[in-house]
Amino acid sequence: MARGVAGVLRRAYSSRVRVLLSTRNLHSFRETESRSLCNSDFDVPTNRFCSCNRVRIQLPWNDYRFGCFEIGKVRTFSSTVDNNGENDDVEESAGSESDDYDEEGVINELGDVDESLLNDSVVAKTDEIGSEAARALNARYNDPVELYRELRESEVRSKIQRSEWDSLHEIFGYFAQSGWAANQALAIYIGKSFFPTAVSKFRDFFLEKCRIEVVQDLLRVGPTDEAVKFLFPVFVEFCIEEFPDEIKRFQSIVDTADLTKPATWFPFARAMKRKIVYHCGPTNSGKTYNALQRFMEAKNGLYCSPLRLLAMEVFDKVNALGIYCSLLTGQEKKHVPFANHVSCTVEMVSTDELYEVAVIDEIQMMADPSRGHAWTKALLGLKADEIHLCGDPSVLDIVRKMCADTGDELVEEHYERFKPLVVEAKTLLGDLKNVKSGDCVVAFSRREIFEVKMAIEKHTNHRCCVIYGALPPETRRQQANLFNDQENEYDVLVASDAVGMGLNLNIRRVVFYSLNKYNGDKIVPVAASQVKQIAGRAGRRGSRYPDGLTTTLHLEDLNYLIECLQQPFDEVTKVGLFPFFEQIELFAAQVPDMAFSKLLDHFGKHCRLDGSYFLCRHDHVKKVANMLEKVQGLSLEDRFNFCFAPVNIRNPKAMYQLYRFASTYSQDTPVNIAMGVPKSSAKNDTELLDLESRHQILSMYLWLSNQFEEKNFPFVERVEAMATNVAELLGESLSKASWKMESKEEKVKGQKKEDRGYERPASLIKLVNKRKEENLV
Ligand SMILES: Nc1ncnc2c1ncn2[C@@H]1O[C@H](COP(=O)(O)OP(=O)(O)OP(=O)(O)O)[C@@H](O)[C@H]1O
Ligand SMILES: [Mg+2]
C-alpha cells in the first residue's frame, strides 16, 4: 500500500472521494476530528506538504504524536459542484500556519499559476449544459483506476477529428494551467518544474489510448475545472506509474530539507529530564549574576556567551574566584588544568558533553536573524541537568512552547532593575563640550566614533577610550579596563552597539550621539530593544556609578529615546534555525553538481519549518561561497567550513586572504599567513584600518585552524603571537589617536578639503517624525 499523503490521495481519488486540504478546514478540523482520522484510515504521512486554495499547508504538522495528519475533509465526490465551498462552515483562521509558511519554497514549486484558477471550491464556469455533461461524465466513468487501466491496456487508437483534437489540446492546456491541479500534484511529489512536462506526457498518453466515447464525453465538458477534476485522478495514476524516479527524487529533496521538529534532533537531550530556569528581566537586574552563582556551585558547568568579550569577562571573573574555568571561542582554546567549567561563545556549544549546569546568556538572541540558530541549538540540544537562560521577556512565551515540546521543566524567575534608569531631559544640547566624566557616548559607525573622540579630546579635557565591532576583543577589553580604571585620565568611553550586551562597565551616563544606524542596506532608526540594551549599560550595580542616567546629544532625539525605553518588549513568535552540515550534505546528494551557494539557496527554498522557527539569513555565507566557487578540490565539508569563517565580506584584503587560504588548503599544502606585523602603532586612520584588517585575517586563520587539521594550519603559535602583537598596537594607536578623519570623498579623490569643523548628520528620527506629521496633515 502506498504510504503517506500520496497514498491517501491516491486512494481517495481512486474511490472518487474528494480530499480537500485547506488551512481553514484544518484549523477547525484539528481539534475535533483528527484523532478519529488517525485511528482509522490514514498512514503517518511521509511527505511534508500539500496545499490548495493557494494556501500552503504543511503536513504532518505538530501532531505527530497522534500519528495523524490533519487533512481537511473527505467528501464524496459528487457530480454537482458545491459552490458554497466547504470552507464556509468554518471560521476564518487569522494567523494560521499558512501565514507563517515559507512561501517561496512552495510558490516556486507551483510556478506562475493562474490566480483565478486557484479556488478550491470551484467557481462553476460551466453553464447548465456543462454541469450536466460533467455529471454524466463522472457517473459513466466513476472509477478512475479502472479508466486508467483501460487506457493502459488499450491498443486501439481512436480516430479523432481535427476540431476534436484542438479542443482536447485546449482541455489539457487548461489542466496544465490549473493551480488547483498543480497544488494537488505536490501531494504525490510532482513539483512545479515537472508538472507541465507530466501533464504534456499525460495528454499524449490520453490522446493515443482513449476511446472515442470518453473523448466525446470529455469534449462536452470542455476546458473547465470540471474536466480538470475528472482527469486529475487518472493523471495521479499515470504519474505514479510513469514517473517513479522523478517522484522519488522530488520526495527526497523535500524530505532532506526537512527542518521540522528540531527538538527531535537531539535524542540524548530529549532522553534527559532537564530543568530550565529562565532568569527574565530588564538590563542590570542581576540575571547573569544569579545564573553564574549556580554555574560556579556546580561540579561542572558551561557558560555560553553572545560575545567573545563577555566570554572572556566570565572566564576572568570565575577564575579570579578560584574556580578553574577554561575559555573556548572560535579563535582560542585556553585549557585551564583541572578545570571542569568552560566559558564559551554560543556558537562553540557542544551538545555532546554532559554538564550539571549550563548558562545561556542573552537568550532573546534566539530571534536574531543571522545568529539566532546558535541559541536555539543550545537550548534544544544541551545535555545539562539544569539550564539557566538569561534574557529579556521577549522570548519567554516561545521558550514556554519549546519546553512543552521537549518535555523539560520550566522555572521562571522574574527580575526588576536594581535602580531605575533616569532619562536626563536636558540632553547635551548638541554640544559635546557638555560631556562629563563617566559618560559613554554611543555612535553607530566607526567613522562617527572617531569624530566624537577627536571632538571631545579637542574641545574638553577628557580623554576617550573607544570600543567598536572591528576591534579585536583583546583591544576592546584593554579599552574597557582603561576606562574602568580610576587611576588614569581616560574617563569617557565612545562606543558602538558592540558595548550593548551584558558587559559591566563603570558608566554613569549613556549619551546617544545619534539613534540611526546603517543596517547594511540603508540608514534606519535603531530598534527599541537595542536602545534599551545599550542604555542599560549605565549605572551597573557594584560599579562606581550605581545610579544610571541616559540622554541624547540633541534635544530632537530625546523623544525617540524615551519612546524606546517605554516600549514594552516585543513578543517573539519565531526563533532561528540553520541546518547542520550533515543535513546540507544529505540535501546535496539529491542535487548533485550544484554550486554550493546555489545549494544553500535551494535548501532555503525547499526547507520545511514548523511555525515557531525561521531559517537564519545566510547572505554572508553565500557571498563567500560565490568567491570560493572557483577553488577546485574542496570537499563539501571543507567548503562549508570555509564559508562559515568569520570574514568581513566588505574587506577585500580579508576576502582575498580567505580565498588564498582555501586555495592553498585545496592543494593539500600547509597554509601560511604570508603577512607581517607593522613595527609601530598607527599614525593615521588608514594605518589603523590596516591594523584592524590584519587582526581580522589573523583571527580568521586561528578560526580555520580550529576547524581543520593541524597539518593544514600549522602556524598557529606564530599567528597567535602576531595577533597579540597587533591587538597591542591597536590599543596603543587608539590611545594616541588624534588625527582628523578623512572623508570618503577625500580618500577617493586623494585631496584634502578645507576644515569645515564638526558637523553631525541630520537626525533621521526627526525626518521620520516630520514625514509622519506631514502625512497626518
Ligand atoms: N546579588 C548581587 N550581589 C552583588 N552584585 C550583584 C548582584 N547581582 C548583580 N550584581 C552585579 O550587578 C551587575 C549587573 O548584574 P548582571 O550582569 O547580572 O545584570 P543582567 O541582568 O545580566 O544585565 P544585562 O541584561 O545587561 O546582562 C553586575 O556587575 C553584577 O556583578
Ligand atoms: Mg547579563
Structural description of this entry:
- This protein is an alpha/beta fold and 777 residues long.
- Among the domains are: 127-249, no CATH class; 264-414, P-loop containing nucleotide triphosphate hydrolases (Rossmann fold), CATH 3.40.50.300; 422-566, 3-Layer(aba) Sandwich (Rossmann fold).
- Helix content is 45%, strand content 12%.
- Helix 5 (128-140) packs antiparallel against helix 10 and helix 7 crosses helix 11 (225-242).
- The radius of gyration is 32 Å and the shape is elongated.
- Residues 1-126 and 751-761 have low confidence and may be disordered.
- Adenosine-5'-triphosphate (ATP) binds at residues 281, 283-289, 390, 502, 504, 536, 540-542.
- Residues 268-384 form the Helicase ATP-binding domain.
- Its main location: mitochondrion.
Strand content: 5-15%
Uncertain stretches: 1-126, 751-761
The CATH architecture term of the domain at 264-414 is 3-Layer(aba) Sandwich
Chain-averaged pLDDT: 80
CATH topology of the domain at 264-414: Rossmann fold
Query: What would the principal axes of the Cα set say about the shape?
Result: elongated
CATH class of the domain at 264-414: Alpha Beta
Number of helices: 30
Rg value: 32 Å
Q: How far apart, in Å, are the first and last alpha carbons?
A: 67 Å
Number of E strands? 22
Fourth-tier CATH superfamily name of the domain at 264-414: P-loop containing nucleotide triphosphate hydrolases
Structural class of the helices, strands and pairings?
Answer: alpha/beta
Which strands sit side by side, in order, in the main sheet? Answer: 8-7-9-6-10-11-5-12
How can the largest sheet be summarized? Answer: 8 strands, mixed
* Percent helix range: 40-55%
**Compounds present?**
adenosine-5'-triphosphate, magnesium ion
InterPro entries: DExH18_N (IPR056377), DEXQc_SUV3 (IPR055206), Helicase_ATP-bd (IPR014001), Helicase_C-like (IPR001650), P-loop_NTPase (IPR027417), RNA-DNA_Helicase (IPR050699), SUV3_C (IPR022192), Suv3_C_1 (IPR041082)
Main location: mitochondrion
Family: Belongs to the DExH box helicase family.
EC number: 3.6.4.13
